[in-house]
Input
Amino acid sequence: MMIELRGVYKQFQNHQLFTDLNLSIKARETVVLFGPSGSGKTVLIKMCLGLIKPDRGEIYLDGERIDNLPEKQLTQIRMKTGTLFQYYALFDSLTVSQNVAFYLANHTDMTEEEINTRVREILIQVNLDGNQHLKPAELSGGMQKRVGIARALVHQPKIIFYDSPTDGLDPVTADRIIDLIKKLDTDLGTTSLVISNDMNTAFRVADRMGMIYNGNILQIGTPGAIAASKDPYVYQFIRGLETGPLLDEMEKITSDND
Ligand SMILES: Nc1ncnc2c1ncn2[C@@H]1O[C@H](COP(=O)(O)OP(=O)(O)OP(=O)(O)O)[C@@H](O)[C@H]1O
Ligand SMILES: [Mg+2]
Output
């Protein structure tokens, strides 16, 4: 397995977020997870990167246990990964090119020329060629997202985490990002964990997809199996229906927190 979570528990204050979460993702597989806001999708990715520690359970990347590693070894492991964070976290004072080049310049011994060539290639792939010299504040949200993707991919990692890659993009740009994710998965043989509540994205990129709800993965399967699911939560969520068990329970959770 390339990504594996075994019996993961995670609690914040008195809020039990995950109870006995299990997930296995094979090499070259693309798995999409979806679920309500606050269900723990971003926390799950952060646990896979060792940025948040689970309270119990084990997490493995490429066969190596990472949840109990010291920071120095985590840095090594993280080099195998690339992450598009939900709020992309670009360096404000650096240009597009410098943001994308950052990893290569600091963690590899590539020459400046090699770096420039690689950065140029990836910027063309995300359709940002010509914007190299702009700073994040001068970019639209969609452009910032694409810089985030370029930065996650520039070192050609084995494992890629995409947190909500098409959120807030126009449909045409979103389609381009979906095609890019698919192309990279096929061309480079990467293993990807994609978080997306956009069902167009989810159904188009997933080999398997699953719903996170109430501390666990409710159901996971092929897009066909999920589309045909009779689970009332999955059924309602993937169709965005107003009636069903979800809204009632989510309203209850919200009012409990007030
Ligand atoms: N570092 C933290 N400390 C305390 N609580 C946290 C922390 N990170 C996340 N949480 C809580 O964990 C829960 C899940 O958060 P998370 O960001 O994973 O949700 P999400 O599923 O990604 O939602 P969205 O779809 O809105 O991005 C939330 O209730 C959040 O408040
Ligand atoms: Mg999130």
